[in-house]
Amino acid sequence: MKKIMTTGLALALTSMLAACGANNAATNNTGTDNAAQGNTASAEPTELVISTWGFSEDFFKEAVYAPFEKEHNVKIVVEIGNNAERLNKIRQGSSDVDVVYLSDYYAQQAINEGLFDTIDSSKIPNLQNIYDIAKAPLGAEYGPAYTIGRLGIAYNPALTSGEVTAWSDLWTKFDKNLAMPAITATAGPMIVDAASLAAGNADFNEDTAFTKLKELDSNVVKYYGQTSEYVNMFGQEEIAGGPIMEMYFKDLQAAVPDAKFVAPSEGAYAVMNTVNVVKGSDNKELAEEFINWQLSEEVQAASAKAKVDSPVNMNVMLTPEEAVGVTYGADVIGQLRKLDMSFVNQHITEWTDRFNREIGG
Q: Which of 5, 166, 232, 241 would be a feasible disulfide site paired with 155, CB 3.0-4.6 Å?
């Protein structure tokens, strides 16, 4: 039986590229002579269209876009929306996107449909500085994961029946006060896999997974599609907790200081956001330079310290305080479970139909 998940994620903590090789591609060139600067300043900037989510816009403008625009004489135009909306625009050809940020689940759909261009890894030297799991999550010809989050369980200890340590505890420690991701959410397929684990399967088994999810249904207050729904219910103590991405835990803890986040003993799930070049882009090389910049130690460290994205660049060093709420370090990333997104996409339609029919209908 095919597994939904790849275990034993191998990490290679490779040595750094020489500073003159990697950093020059990712940072401002301060040695440019005045004549060259004058020529660059007088040239009309190239427009680079980036499709992304709408969160942390001020951070991205200041720390990611502005330095790249200055270095490369580029005007970045941003199109925002959720994964599905933005992928549909590319499918329909109704945008001129060059670079697209998508979760691995949606990026796999785009690859299956031939919507992404292949990348030239030699043009992205910072690939050598990121964790192996992030280098080619959907195949070596396509873009990397620029961040890896983890899906675990957050909970309010005052409202649960003891300490939560495992995915199986969702079935035993919560009493009609649980929130679960909707089947159509990014974490939906992960919960199907977690249910299979909780049923005692070493290999993924769809039937026992759905039987197990049906057992849990009476304890679920909400199948949430937006994380804001979870955060609001948690703060108002309408729920005791449930599966959620670690990056949102700071919002939960602000409302409930005693809240806890746990990476379940069976393994938290890797939630990977990718960055790719859209097929037909007139700015492929510039797009690859932008991807290289996104992977740079400078951008990765700034994103982590601002609690915007967890770093994949292995050279980013965080203090214990800076690492709170961030998926950080070889030990943490090495224990993550990674779904086979090609397998997920082959089955997600039938899983969605089955979930709506048997559980959430």
A: 241
Residue type present at position 74: V
Segment (H or E) for 277: strand 269-277
95: which 2 tokens?
Answer: 């945008």
Rounded distance between C-alpha atoms, residue 288 and residue 45, angstroms: 17
| DSSP bridge pairs for 151 | 245, 269
| Segment 16-63, tens digit of pLDDT | 333 334 444 444 443 444 444 444 456 899 999 999 998 899 999 999
Q: How far apart are alpha carbons 131 and 339 in whole angstroms?
A: 17
Q: How far is CA 320 from CA 76, 100, 150, 171, 250, in A?
A: 34, 32, 18, 32, 15
How confident is the model over 150-194, as pLDDT tens digits?
Answer: 999 999 999 999 999 999 999 999 999 999 999 988 899 999 999
CA distance 14 to 314: 8
Question: Residue 132 has which token pair?
Answer: 């192996």
Alpha helices in 177-217 (DSSP H): 188-198, 206-216
Convert 124-160 to b/e letters by CB count within 10 Å (16 or more is b): bbbbbbbbbbbbbbbeeebbbbbbbbbbbbbbbeebb
Q: What is the DSSP string of 46-101?
A: EEEEEEE-STTHHHIIIIIIHHHHHHHTEEEEEEE--HHHHHHHHHHT-S--SEEE
CA–CA dist 325, 149 (Å, integer): 10
- C-alpha 60/C-alpha 38 separation (Å) is 27
Comparing C-alpha atoms, which of 270, 15, 313, 272 is closest to residue 142? 272
Q: Which of 215, 184, 213, 209 is nearest to 197 (CA)?
A: 209
| 339-171-263-258 Cα dihedral, nearest 10 degrees | 140
